[in-house]
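From the shared-data thread, chain only:
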Amino acid sequence: MGRRVAIAGVGLSGLPGSPEATPFALHAQASRAALVEAGLKPSDIDGFASAGLGALQPLEVAEYMGLKPRWIDSTGVGGATWEVMAAHAADAIAEGRADVILLAYGSTARTDLKRKLRTASLAWGTRGPSQFEAPFGHTLISKYAMAARRHMHEYGTTLEQMAEIAVSARYNAGLTPFAAYRDPIDIADVLDGPMIADPFTKLQCCIRSDGGAAVIMVAEDRVRDLAVKPVWVLGSAEAGSHVSMSQWDDFTTSPAAMTGPTAFARAGIRPDEIDVAQIYDAFTYMALITLEDLGFCAKGEGGAFVENGRLRVGGALPTNTDGGGLSACHPGMRGLFLLVEAARQLRGGCGDRQVEDAKLACVSGTGGWFCSSGTMILGAD
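Structure, as tokens:
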């Protein structure tokens, strides 16, 4: 059929946090907000996608919300899940498998961590290939730290340059009412903080929060029913790279080097045309090389690229305008929150953090330790 696909309503829940909320409730609250914004009813939804709570989760959450979808998805590839899943949804709508698809996520990651503090682990699984790395302290954080050090060695990237990413994220969070941390910080604050995994100090690592998000995607013939301006899906791409560090060809290149050029080519858009970017930032280094691999700057130039407030609202490439995972929220697989913020920016009305005349957005999620990538190019009329 080849129908065009648009993002309709979007919604958030549980920010900055509600200890009483369950993951199911956060799914439902965000979904209700998205439906109200779009001017749609639950009965309009004929496709549903979710991930993060187990094998049966999409069916369980759909039942909880009274939905009986004819299209379902539960893709799970870490932080890139939502960009990959949104691309699957767009393909399904384009080909007529569904007309209105709801993507929903809810997590009580912060509350769960507090309840299980003594047993919480920073490793991401110890079965399969990971069993050969976990005994040697290869946690998720340490893997990113090793990769960051390699980039510093290869290209001369500095601690101050990576710290600027955290400072810019906090600047943007200061403009965002729902951000968890809004007090200004400077480079010295970042570098003088507690060391977590060299070279990452505390402020270079994402926060842990509760929260929910929802995005409704519709076929072009349903756009006339919407109560909001549609945000069009112009292009997308997905890719996987590795799980074992020994199978990662180059610590300074992520799978966004595959998804970025492909998504831009499919959209017919160049990186220098993008008005606002939403980039997964579980760690400062993640944002830095993703920007390189998407084509916003050359390989090795990410450090210089992020300097001088370029990533701040009002800068040359406003990035993570809500404050990102470093300051706004990070309930786990944050990729759906990237799509929510991109859609809101392209519609306008984001208050102090609104990017002026934003028409094109690049959204890119990263999973694992650069194991997966999903990139979407979005546009507004």
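Residues 117-123 have pLDDT under 50 and may be disordered.
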